[in-house]
Every structure is written in C-alpha cells, then in structure tokens.
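Example for tutorial group B:
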C-alpha cells in the first residue's frame, strides 16, 4: 500500500499501466520505432520515472519540449537520445553540445545562428507541412527546397533526422483526412527529393498519438506518442480507427476536510451559485484550482468518489478547496476522495473533468501543479496490471 498518510492531495501513477500502454502502441506500430514524448514532466506523470519505464521496455529515443526538460533527464542519468521539439536559445548551444542533446531546426535563420556558434551540434530538421507553427515550409503555397538544401549543407550541424507534425490527425472527417493524407504525401516527396540530391535525410518521423491511432504503421523510422502511455486519448468522445486496450495510469485524490449539514436557502462557495433546496450534507475537500483543478468545472455536477461512493461537486471551485454534496453518504474528515481513478468498484475519468472544462485530457494533466505530490506504483512490468485484475477476479469468484 502507498503511504499517503498526511497528504491533503496527491496523484498516483501506475508504472505497470505505462508499460502496458506502451506495449499496445508497439503492437500496432510493429516496424516503426517509438520516440517517447515526455514533455511537461510526461504530462504530469513524472518525466524521469516514465522515461525509465519506457527505456526498460525498449524505447531508445525521447522527445521533450525544452532544454530544461532535457537536462532534467540527463541529470537523472538517462543516456538515450533526446530530441528537443521546440525552440532553444542559440546562446545555449554549449549546453546542447555538452549534454549530447538533439535540437530541432526551427527555420533557416535559426539554423544559421546555431551553425555560426562553431560547435558540432546534433539536429533534426522540422518540415512544416501545414501546422504553421515551426519548421521550414513545405506546403503547396511555399516549398522552400533551397532552405532544406542550405540547412543540410551546414558544416556544424549534424542533421540526423527530419520530421513534421499533423494538426488534424484526430479528425476522421473527410476534409481533415484529405489534409492529413496530403501532408503525408508531401512529406514523403520531400524525403525522396533530398535523397535524389544525394542528401541523407536521417531519421524520418511524423506521427503523434492520433496519427498513430488513426493511421497505424506507415513505415516511417519513428513515431512520437506522448499521451498514449498515460492510457487515455485527448477526449473519449472522439472516435479513433484503432481503439487500443489502454489502462489509465494516473489517479488524483484528495481528502475530506470537514462535513456539515445545511438547510434550504443556505448557499455554498463564492458567488453563491449552489443554493440548498432540501437539507444537504456538504463535505469540504482539500483541492482547488491552485492544485490544477480547472475552475471551469464549477457548478457542473462533476461526480467524484468519496470513500468509493459517488458524490457531486457543488458551488464554485476555490483556490485550495471545493465542496461536494454527500447527503446520505458515510463520510468523515480525512476520508479519501478520488477525482480521477478507481475506488472500490467505481471509476471516475479524467475525461469528465476535461469535458466540464471544455478542454483536452492533455491539458487537464498538465494543469496539475507542484503542490500535488506524486506517488508511483508498480515497476514498469507490462504484464502486471492484467495479471492483478485476473487474480482479483479469481479471488472474487472464490467466495
Ligand atoms: C507533443 C508533441 C507530440 C506528442 O503529442 P501527443 O498528441 O501527446 O502524442 C509529438 N510531436 C510533437 C512535435 C509534439 O509537440
């Protein structure tokens, strides 16, 4: 059992579930290697721990957003290749070189600046096939072939890969699928042109989580799943082509602070948006938007589990606290409240919070703040979770 005694709020990350989810992705992607995207502290799941689990299960390449995130992995002793997916100030070139990090080429002027530092730097070139965020343009409106040629010719840049990104791979509508298809074709065309011109483009990769779920193994060198190890997609309501057998890895829990009985006419929390109609028992919970719970979920009747019993949040979410209607339930101060995860036979999902806050699960995870300590369970064994469930069923069947 986890020792969460004394904690007011915490997350539990099941590393066996992370390993199980990785295996689901690998079975779908077969020939394509996996670059583990562990940016923003692995979407709040713990970058160092998740990277170790992925490494232990055969992942040899990692992607982060910033040089700070890359250095955190290096300081934890992770020696695998690390690609920084976003911009790094060229003034940090010495750190990139010293820690053997791979930097994304954001555009041609950026590459010139990096090259001018006079250090041997490892890079992957970003091709912009339609996201229009970063990358050298390779779109019908502008195909900057000279830009790619110039970057690949730079003496100090070791361009070991080329990659692009899909903005609508989550959308199975006709237009979106046509757009994604054109991006893929254009990207493949770019890679061919480089090769025809005697340039080795290096490792080729384009698929993110939805690119993986909806387009499967496309034969590129790597794919770049992030959210999938966490065992969820961005939104449960979005259909996908390959529905994998995922296990959500993260649970979010807090505790009951106090319990009180209120009479009709009394109101709860800022703004007085919840007015008591029948006598109600209200529990105050030790979590608020300062912990990352979106304030937008206020007054949306979100279900939480108090001691494994369903209750609904009422009134505005405060910075450090919120309130639940626990009328008729057995509840006392110190009891555990689950906002994401299982308690007993019941489960509440991150998706419910996400839907009430009109967001995506990626953001709901990334909102969790440093005030929320993280506890890990499991050892990164992909077989452990299903085995535990089967053992539990045997035990249940036995009486
Ligand atoms: C964040 C990111 C990913 C991973 O995205 P998911 O949707 O979590 O799989 C992949 N590639 C790039 C460039 C990213 O920024």
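The residue assignment follows.
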């Amino acid at each position: 059992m986890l020792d969460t005694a004394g904690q007011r709020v915490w997350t539990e990350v099941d590393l066996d579930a992370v390993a199980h989810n990785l295996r689901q992705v690998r079975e779908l992607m077969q020939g394509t290697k996996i670059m583990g995207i562990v940016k923003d502290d692995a979407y709040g799941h713990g970058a160092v721990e998740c990277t170790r689990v992925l490494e232990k299960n055969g992942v040899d390449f990692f992607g982060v957003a910033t040089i700070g995130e890359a250095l955190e992995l290096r300081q934890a002793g992770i020696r695998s290749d690390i690609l920084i997916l976003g911009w790094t100030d060229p003034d940090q070139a010495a750190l990139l070189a010293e820690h053997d990090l791979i930097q994304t080429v954001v555009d041609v002027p950026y590459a010139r600046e990096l090259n001018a530092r006079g250090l041997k730097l490892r890079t992957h070139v970003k091709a912009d096939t339609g996201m229009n965020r970063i990358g050298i343009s390779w779109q019908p409106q502008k195909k900057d072939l000279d830009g790619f040629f110039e970057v690949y010719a730079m003496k100090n840049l070791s361009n070991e890969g080329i990659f692009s990104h899909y903005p609508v791979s989550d959308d199975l509508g006709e237009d979106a699928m046509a757009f994604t298809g054109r991006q893929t074709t254009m990207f493949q065309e770019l890679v061919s042109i480089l090769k025809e011109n005697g340039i080795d483009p290096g490792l080729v990769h384009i698929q993110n989580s939805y690119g993986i779920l909806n387009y499967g193994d496309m034969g590129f060198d790597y794919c770049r799943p992030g959210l999938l190890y966490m065992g969820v997609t961005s939104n449960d309501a979005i259909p996908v082509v390959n529905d994998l057998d995922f296990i959500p890895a993260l649970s979010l829990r807090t505790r009951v602070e106090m319990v009180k009985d209120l009479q009709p006419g009394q109101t709860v929390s800022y703004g007085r948006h919840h007015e008591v109609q029948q006598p109600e028992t209200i529990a105050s919970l030790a979590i608020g938007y300062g912990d990352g719970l979106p304030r937008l979920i206020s007054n949306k009747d979100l279900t939480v589990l108090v001691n494994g019993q369903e209750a609904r949040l009422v009134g505005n979410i405060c910075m450090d606290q919120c309130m639940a209607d626990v009328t008729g339930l057995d509840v006392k101060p110190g009891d555990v409240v689950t906002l994401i995860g299982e308690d007993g036979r019941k489960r509440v999902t991150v998706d419910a919070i996400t839907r009430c806050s009109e967001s995506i699960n990626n953001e709901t995870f990334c909102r969790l703040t440093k005030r929320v300590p993280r506890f890990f369970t499991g050892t990164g064994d992909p077989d452990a979770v299903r085995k535990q469930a089967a053992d539990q069923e045997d035990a249940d069947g036995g009486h």
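The chain has twelve helices and 21 strands. Compare this with the pattern of hydrophobic and polar residues in the output above.
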